[in-house]
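Sat 14:20. Reprocessing the chain from the morning session after the first attempt stalled halfway. Input below, unchanged.
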Amino acid sequence: MKRVHRYALYALMILVIGLGFAVYERSRDRLLRVSVLDIGQGDAIYVRAPGGRDALIDGGPDRSILTRLGEVMPWYDRSIDVIVATHPDSDHIGGLLSVLERYHVGVILESGVSSDNVVDDGLAERAREKGIDRLLARRGMSLDLGSNVVMDILFPHGDVSHFETNTASIIVQLRYGSTSAMFTGDAPQSVERALIKTYGPSLKSNILKAGHHGSRTSSDESFVVAVSPDYAIISAGIKNRYDHPHREVTDLFDRLGIPLLRTYESGTISCLSDGIGMTCK
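Finished this time. Tokens:
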């Protein structure tokens, strides 16, 4: 009889733990999670909508993306609905081949810029082998992640096959309720200024992932003012060979009174939104 009672107690404990986990998961369901991953000198942003659908914007330079994804994704999740490869430079797509090996991927969005990067060729081949659709991102496209979370493509506006790779970067504005986040890849100031003419006040966002790892080639002051973020985030490696971020850019955010978070100082930066407000740390 004691053994029966012990088994009953174990079953009750498992039930309580399961119910607790279910309640915890439901409590998370109201929040949009944006994680700017600490992957060294590169970009990788993981987005998880309240209902569980997700997206990965770039994949960093190497296999370290798998470790970082393991830190922010639920342990049981082995799929990513959307990958946005903003442009085919290796510090943005180098880790995506590993992601395709580890996770089931729904679709990959690309800018369509021509590249001699062998990593880009390998990614295309692996996507074909796995039957993953590859779509060209174009201005006006919207990706619905459910639960009122939408990813709007602001750029490219058309064929960018012969552009310089940074200039062809896909620019995404993520929206949830009255909150939003702006991700610009490595887009230069010329593209940022063009966005102001096209979108004007609608560029306003709670978060700005500073372009090109805080390089002086991005973060035009008029664009930063138009976005007017509550937080700016720089994804860069510590003591990198490009000296990112450049002093002009950090000084700009400081002068405008915009809090600046850096992955090389803080590690992965986590932002949460309930659709009304957004916080980052």
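The first strand starts at residue 32 and ends at 36.
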